[in-house]
Queue: 3 jobs
Job 1
Amino acid sequence: MYDYNVKQFGAAGDGETLDQYALQRAIDTCSEAGGGTVYVPRGTYVTGTLMLRSNVHLHLGMQAVIRASSDMSLYPPVGYEAYTNPPRATYILLLAREVSNCRITGEGEINGGGTEDLWFPENRLVPMRIGTLLFTGCSGVRVDGITIRHSDSWTLHVQQCEDVMISRVAIRNNRNRINTDGIGIDGSRNVQISDCNIESGDDSIVFKSIDGFACENVTVSGCVLRSRCQAIKFGTESEGPIRNVTIANCVVHDSTIGLSLYLKDGGPYENLVFSNLIIHAAFKFPFLIDITPRYYQSSKPVSIRNIVFDNIILTGPGRIFIEGTAEHPVENITFNNFTNSMTGEEEDFSQMTKATGTSRCDADPDAFNYAAQPYQFVAAHVRGLYINGMTFRKDNPDVAILDRGLLYLSHIEDGYARNINHNPLQSGIAPVQQDHCRNWRLE
């Protein structure tokens, strides 16, 4: 038995009537009575911004749809986007600010209205874009079972929250609409994400620490991800640490970049474990770890350390890329049982450059371009590189000869590679090239 049915508060659910005020009255009444369940039955409920409250469980019944209104006057600004100049206001469909014990569950749907294609540079010209769900400064957040379609901007944003569980959520965004990130975890702790199915026009799951708050103690498991941009991304905004994260038993398919760690703003990335992942990605660098200060003339101390990749299958035309800096190398990175299936050949390695992860970056124009090296695994400035079983294979039985070398290693200190398996190489290609390496051995 549900405590509060939105129909009892005057909601029409006919897809035409503005139901914002009826829905908000139901939520507020429930909260003022000490909490309970607000039930949204079958129907389409048009609304602007709804404020979620403490101890309120919003349950969407089968075929219930909360749909964003196209009337922009119904969305008050709730803050400003990070790092935009001039600052651009943010707008949200469902907003929870400093609440506790807030739940959204059910078999129903939230529709953000972002159906049309929107890519660079047109996205910068749109004066207002509506994010779907924002939890900021909250504790005890639960999101389970719902479907979110056509978010106009960020879909499910968890900002500076604690004790969060997101499970069995389906996100279906327009792949040709930029900035429609799936789940964003920003400066939050004690977060569990499981069994979600995400299709996004930007990053599917992204970790950030924009305002310096630590993003820590996070698990992701059993998810299926498809992204026009990056399926699993760390950064680029990282003023605080991102640490103690495990991502396991997930599938990435039909994506541009499968997994990336971009460190630009100073906060360390540490104690990260990635296990049992299947990744299909089409970009030239689908698997990337990079320390590049955002502004090279005023760089901050940075570090990426204690990273484990275990039982990974990577498929696509691109290569694995790892780069630290001379002052701040990547530290203690381990690969166990890593399989790289190559689906194509590169035309000109010399013209390649690594991805920056953002347009807001002033990189050193005189830096050495490690991305131009004709090798499948490129690593530079790493202290502690341990490879325990890595297979390079051509995913084409008719052309089984590799057109590139296996390992390019520059400024590597400490570590080893064991059990490297591969298809035959083209004549004249050195399998391994080492430059300025110390205490590192191929066994």
Job 2
Amino acid sequence: MALDTLFAASHVYIGNAIWYLVIFAILMLLVKHYAWGPVSDMMEKRRQKVIEDLDSAADNRKKAETLANEREAALKNSRQEATKILSDAKANAQKTSDKIVADANSDAASIRKKAEADAKQAKTDALNDARGQVADISVAIAEKVIAKNLSAEDQKDLVDQFIKGLDN
């Protein structure tokens, strides 16, 4: 009897085990059909998205490096242009300064020449006035000394002779 009980108990267990295996197989088929396929598809889509994101990040990094290099080159070019502009401005300022100085020197020279010409003319005018006054004085003295009245032509000749005598 103990053997029958053992056999009946093991039969129950074998039947249960077979039942569990059938249920497990059905559940596996259901899981494969309803869960495993969509989960696998979802995982594949996720894998593809991660790959695309990594590729996109690499492309963006390359673009950023390219832009950084372009900006650095543009900055270097702008520094060179600024240096050139400054040197051109200094050269133009020096040219302008030299021109202003040259114009001022030219103006000063022309003013000196005009002043010398004016002084020469003033000297000539003063000498002519002095000659006229000397002639008048000489005629007046000569009239008193000689006691005769000289003609204008005679007066002029006397004055010219007197001036010639002064120059020598």
Job 3
Amino acid sequence: MTDAGAPLGATGPSTAGPVTRGSVVRVGAATAASALCGYAVLYLAARDLEPAGFSVFAVFWGAFGLVTGAAFGLLQESTREVRSMTYVEIAVGPRTHPLRVAALVGVAAAAVIALSAPLWSGRVFVESRWLSVALLAVGLAGFCLHAALLGVLAGLDRWTAYGALMVTDAALRVVVAVATFIVGWGLVGYLWATVAGAVAWLILLATSPAGRDAAALLTPGGTATFLRGASHSIAAAGASAILVMGFPVLLKATSGDLGAAGGVVILAVTLTRAPLLVPLTAMQGNLIAHFVDQRAHRLRALVVPATVVAGVGALGVVAAGAIGPWLLRSAFGADYHADGALLAWLTGAAVAIALLTLTGAAAVAAALHRAYSLGWVSATVASTLLLLMPLDLQTRTVVALLCGPVVGIVVHLTALAGKRAP
């Protein structure tokens, strides 16, 4: 596997052009393939498990999405550090190896999960408790390296390798899920399928020269400096992961036993947001590189991607309301019933989170780490408080996911408006 991109020097890329349409197309194709794989895993699990069993699986799926979503902070900081090397003169001084730092973060995070598990695992994981904890810890350690490698590849314009890593991750999950469905492994097999992609970075390093070059890259500055920036990104990415992949965990924590109704709501939330949030999450490298390139016009650079998101989202709202209930019943069975109004509102909520994702990427590119994390944390806190309202499950889910992100968007835009361009 080869990949055209900027040549590597002793410490980094010698050149890096603006994010091109070709790079977006390549990552877009990989995103589409990854999204189909994700849908396939959810489809197989929903067909194989009854709604109550699917809700148990969905909580683990969400828990893994939560912790790996936080690890995406390593992708964001790695992308920003590598991309910024193009625009600043690199002085002699300490260097940081992003993948080694990611390995240390991964090991530390896995240890925290394992040691703290007795305090929370009994409330979160109803079945296969200790297997779930072990898979969560080991899977997160591997994903930290996965995320850092994605970030370096994005900073170097190595979009083919970037897409290959995404697709390998998703394909591994599908392989295990299909095997589980065929042999009747049940819930345990889908737990393994959830974390199977955590070894994708090893496969890329074994097969891709571009991947090996990226893994050896050094960035300017010491480890402490890298970790300082990454810590804000990780905090914000963790907060975003609570609202995105980890929402089933948040919903269960604020609702108690979800039962069959919870399984339907979780599936509806997942399906209505995936068309927008899966591509945006996968294209974080493209977005941050774009905003770094357009650093002199930070707010103006948001207009085009925000317009695209709003336009696609509006079409999604109409489609969800019109044909969503039929699609849900046809694809997953009569037990999964939700009305068109709920699906339309949930799609609108997905647009709000997608716009928050865009403003967050712009904040990261501007090195506004505190504002980035504050925006996502504020949105998550607001959504959590709204979930505690004395309303039925469907209504408070919509209100929390629609209104909470608005708080974070305001924080990000305020910070971007007050930041002077270099």
